[in-house]
Amino acid sequence: MPNQRMDQVFKALSDGTRREMIERLTRGPASVKDLAQPLSMSLPAVMQHLQVLEACGLVRSEKAGRVRTCHLEPDGLRMAEDWLGGQRTGWEHRLDRLGGFLDTDEGTRS
């Protein structure tokens, strides 16, 4: 199940519009109207993007009267960040070992 959720998070983040929405929400909660304002798309299209973000746990929304306010859910981003950090760490170790090997190999030729 965690892999499925992570797949959903990365799929959601693969879209530039949704990344813009996430970026806006890092500054604090926003209404759907506020999120839609800088985008060149209809309100129903914005709502579809928000549904994707909510389905994977990156965003939650609440409705008060006629206003729907969206909030960032940091746990979804944290999961993606942890996975990317693990990948980065693995590659850094591999590159460090390669660098050490190359340094040793050069020293044996002199």
From TrEMBL:
Question: What InterPro entries does this protein's entry cite?
Answer: ArsR-like_HTH (IPR011991), HTH_ArsR_DNA-bd_dom (IPR001845), WH-like_DNA-bd_sf (IPR036388), WH_DNA-bd_sf (IPR036390)
Which SUPFAM superfamilies does the protein's record reference? Winged helix' DNA-binding domain (SSF46785)
- By its UniProt entry, which PROSITE patterns does this protein fall under? HTH_ARSR_2
| Residue ranges annotated for the HTH arsR-type domain, each copy included | 1-92
**Which Gene3D superfamilies does the record associate with it?**
Winged helix-like DNA-binding domain superfamily/Winged helix DNA-binding domain
What protein name applies here?
A: Transcriptional regulator
